[in-house]
Specification:
Length: about 350
């Protein structure tokens, strides 16, 4: 119907000029087919089936060790002599990317089988030195929690650390944080920069030791100030033992690290619009930290050290009585005993909580 609209003139076309139409209208003559046809694809581009060398080794080993009758259908039995080679091939192949125990075993189970496949794979992968050096450990942290000993009185055992890289404020860019491990009270000392060992010792003696006495032990990280000979000689002359935390393990000085977080949060809350005025808020931050009840002692640092809890606003008592010194001392001893019991309970509670996520030490 489409071609009916046209008027055609039929003319003769010789076969020599009509090769395309003749080729489509003629049958292929099988008698003219060559015995050895030449392939269209060059020989350099021919793709042959891939045969792994390890499969050939298995075939040769099966001659000496025939496969048992319980081999699952569709799998190849691997003789004993070729198993280590096969596991090494499946684990170290670049396309496999050194998988773990489960993935290596799963990749082998798809084609191969022997009775102790999972056990052999686990033994090989767990002893791979390359995996041990390059992979991140996934096991629980080694070793149970070892809490620091509970002090007997306030300001006998200290934890110190630095808050650094603060914006300049009244010429100060760092804070020396000193925490009493018994009462959890803290002293915040603004500094013009990261001090030397001698400057740190002088600041402690001027602002802490002269108020609370010389402590028995000081816990600090491995900063250059605390590993220097000056610091060790200064503390040795005063009779103070120096306890340094393990490298890259800030949890050892967790008391000071926690106060650092609280002080940083306080300064961000009240100085976010005026970051250059944080030095003015240091006394208020110290007052706030020492006035709040601590979860480990069940009382505030003020109440633990001084025997009373300061109020937020002034108040007047209708009738005042001066308590006897002995009553005050007895009350302080009872307070310290309650704090010590609470600290021991908190330490045991923290140890139980931490040990649930830790394995035994090697």
């Amino acid at each position: 119907m489409f071609f009916a609209r046209f008027r055609f003139t039929i003319s003769y076309r010789p076969g020599s000029l009509n090769t395309k139409a003749d080729a489509l209208s003629r049958l292929y003559d099988t008698d003219d087919r060559p015995i050895d046809p030449t392939p269209i694809i060059p020989a350099s581009r021919l793709v042959a089936p891939v045969v792994w060398e390890v499969d050939a080794d298995i075939e040769r080993a099966l001659v000496l060790e025939p496969a048992p009758t319980q081999v699952p259908e569709g799998r190849m039995y691997v003789p004993l002599d070729v198993r280590d080679q096969l596991i090494r091939w499946a684990h170290t192949l670049p396309a496999a990317d050194r998988p773990g125990v489960e993935r290596t075993a799963r990749s082998l189970r798809g084609k191969y089988w022997w009775p102790t496949l999972a056990k052999d794979v686990r033994s090989y992968v767990s002893s791979c030195s390359v995996c041990a050096q390059s992979k991140a450990p996934r096991h629980l942290p080694r070793g149970k929690l070892q809490p620091l000993p509970v002090p007997q009185r306030p300001w006998s055992h200290l934890s110190i650390d630095f808050l650094t890289d603060l914006p300049p404020s009244q010429g100060n860019t760092a804070i020396l944080v000193v925490v009493d491990r018994f009462s959890k009270s803290c002293r915040l000392l603004p500094l013009p920069g990261l001090p030397t060992a001698l400057q740190t010792a002088e600041a402690l003696f001027t602002h802490v030791f002269r108020h609370y006495g010389v402590p028995e032990d000081i816990v600090s990280d491995r900063g250059s100030q605390f590993t220097s000979r000056v610091w060790k000689a200064f503390m040795e002359r005063l009779g103070v033992s120096v306890s340094l935390t393990s490298g890259y393990h800030p949890e050892s000085n967790g008391q000071a690290e926690r106060v650092n977080q609280e002080v940083g949060r306080f300064l961000r809350s009240y100085c976010r619009d005026r970051p250059g005025e944080w030095a003015r808020y240091i006394p208020l931050a110290e007052l706030a930290q020492n006035s709040l009840r601590h979860s480990s002692t069940n009382m505030s640092p003020f109440q633990c050290v001084l025997g009373y809890q300061p109020v937020l606003a002034p108040w007047h008592q209708s009738q005042t009585e001066d308590p006897a010194v002995e009553d005050w001392v007895q009350h302080s001893k009872e307070t310290w005993k309650a704090v010590q019991d609470s600290l021991k309970e908190a330490s045991a509670r923290q140890k139980r909580s931490a040990d649930r996520h830790r394995s035994e030490a090697p």
